[in-house]
Amino acid sequence: MTGTKFQNLPPLALPLVYDSFMFRLFPSVIAITLLIGALPALAQKTAIGNNANRPFSQGIIYGDTLYVAGMTGGKDGKIPEKFEDEVKQTLENINVVLKDAGISFADAVSVQVYLTDMELFGRMNAVYTTYFPEPRPTRTTVGIAKLVGTAKIEITVTARSAALGKAKKKKK
């Protein structure tokens, strides 16, 4: 602020010049801040999957992210007796939601696995690795006491893809 315009001002006047400039700039700063803060609100949640008669959505698309609800290996109300078949059916149930969103296991970025018996971890992993290509998503595996019915495994997935945002725009 040492240009010719401010050269003859006493030193105490410089903060006043700066303050008057900021006062003129302030409405623009507020408008930009409000706009940036509102951007997430512009994205809408879209439910996908078979949500009939459920108190939750199987999947929610928000922006370029898909959140898949916890899935078990149930099909037609029955859980397979063999654990590997249960894991496979769990992942197939997740795949239905991924496909409904137009994406695949390759788009998964985070997975949570819940097992009622941690001794099943190796057997779960043997099936799991056939579904998720490299680089595999981050994963948390937790041992829990019980799941609904006779299920021994439940899996949730979070996936991201630019295609999700584009697909939503096309549907509108």
Write the layout of secondary structure elements.
Layout: H1 14-42, E1 45-48, E2 59-62, E3 65-71, H2 83-100, E4 108-115, H3 121-128, E5 138-143, E6 153-160, H4 162-171
Parallel strand pairs: 4-5
Antiparallel strand pairs: 1-2, 2-3, 3-6, 4-6
Helix pairs in contact: 2-3
Descriptive overview:
This protein has 172 residues and is an alpha+beta fold. It folds into 2 domains: 4-42, no CATH class; 45-171, RutC-like (60s Ribosomal Protein L30, Chain: A). It contains 4 helices and 6 strands, in the order H-E-E-E-H-E-H-E-E-H. It has a 6-stranded mixed β-sheet with strand order 1-2-3-6-4-5, with helices on one face. Strand 2 and strand 3 form a beta hairpin. The longest helix has 29 residues, at 14-42. The two termini are 51 Å apart. Mean pLDDT is 83; it is low at 168-172.
